[in-house]
Amino acid sequence: MEPQQRINYDCGIYMLYCMDIIAHYIVDKSPLTLLDEIKKLTGSCTASKAEKFRAALRDKMQELVE
């Protein structure tokens, strides 16, 4: 399954969410290549999960400025 964003906004947050999944995979698994894994890793990226990621990111940023 390829990731699908169903809304016309928040593409940056959606992209950051997918990249976060990929980054964690790289750190955990140290793969030589990602070509075979990208669809599997990003297939679970959904708008609702991206929204939760946005809220968590906002909270982290708020903590940094306090």
TrEMBL record:
Q: Which domain of life is it from?
A: Eukaryota
Q: Does the keyword Transmembrane apply?
A: no
Q: Which residues form the Ubiquitin-like protease family profile domain?
A: 3-53
State whether keyword Protease applies: yes
Gene3D superfamilies on file: 1.10.418.20
Q: Please give the Pfam families that the UniProt record associates with this protein.
A: Peptidase_C48
GO BP annotations of the record are: proteolysis
**Entries under InterPro entries matching the protein:** Papain-like_cys_pep_sf, Peptidase_C48_C
Q: Which GO terms describe its molecular function?
A: cysteine-type peptidase activity
What keywords were assigned to this record?
Hydrolase, Protease
The residues forming the signal peptide are none
- Similarity section: Belongs to the peptidase C48 family.
User: Protein name, please?
Assistant: Ubiquitin-like protease family profile domain-containing protein
